[in-house]
Design a protein that fits this description.
The chain is an alpha+beta fold. The chain is 35% helix and 28% strand. A hairpin with a 7-residue loop joins strand 3 (70-73) and strand 4.
């Protein structure tokens, strides 16, 4: 095995409502399979998941959002079918859009880190503006609004907030690791 000095950060995207997980990669795959096959049974088999698990996941989304995600049509000449509701299609579309946005938004960042000899997967950096900074003891929370309608939250040390002089309205990058979101302050050019 050869040793590599290149490190890749991985990105996980999910949607929440009121701090409760609604849809992640697995849920996206479930909705896509239901849309493709028109059946929860076929979708669950294609994904290698139990019917009970897939149906439970759908019900959980519906409970959290208060909206129907799938519609089941029973009987008829061709038998029953299951299809995504308009809300279900919209939810899937929003997840895909956010996922694509996060990948595209970070592409230019790789060069900046390269100057420091650090390689990051470009899709893990998102540009945004700080909406709220709160410090509690040795830790602080920074809420970042990104261009897509979403707010990222990062827990960082109070010391880091002071050292970077973070305040509401600052332009920052959210650097996403598999376990956390870090903050990098954008450099501002001095005015003449």
């Amino acid at each position: 095995m050869t040793e590599s000095n290149e490190l890749d950060l991985k990105l996980r995207v999910w949607l929440e409502k009121g701090g409760v997980h609604v849809l992640g990669k697995g849920g996206k795959e479930i909705l896509e399979a239901i849309d493709r096959y028109g059946s929860i049974s076929y979708a669950s088999r294609a994904l290698g998941m139990s019917y009970r698990y897939v149906w439970g996941y759908i019900r959980k989304i519906e409970e959290i959002t208060g909206r129907k995600v799938v519609r089941t049509v029973r009987g008829g000449k061709e038998g029953g079918k299951t299809e995504l509701t308009d809300f279900g299609r919209g939810l899937l579309g929003e997840f895909r859009r956010l996922e694509e946005f996060m990948v595209d938004k970070g592409k230019s960042f790789e060069d900046e880190w390269g100057l420091l000899g650090i390689k990051l997967s470009a899709r893990n950096r998102i540009s945004g503006k700080i909406k709220k900074v709160s410090v509690e003891g040795v830790a602080g929370k920074v809420e970042i609004e990104i261009d897509t309608p979403a707010i990222l939250k990062s827990l960082i040390t109070s010391e880091a907030i002071r050292e970077m002089d973070l305040k509401e309205g600052d332009e920052v990058y959210a650097i996403i690791k598999s376990t956390e979101i870090m903050i990098a302050k954008k450099r501002t050019e001095p005015s003449d």
